[in-house]
Amino acid sequence: MEITLDMLLASRDNRQAKQMELMSAHPRHTLVCLTVIMPGAVKRNLHSLIVANAALTAVLECFRDSLVDIEVHDLVTGYEAYLMVDLDALRAKEMACEIEDTHPLGRLFDIDILQPDGLPVSRQQVGHEARKCLLCDHESRWCMRNHTHTQAELQTCIARMIEEYVG
Question: Cα 1 from chain centroid?
Answer without folding.
Answer: 21
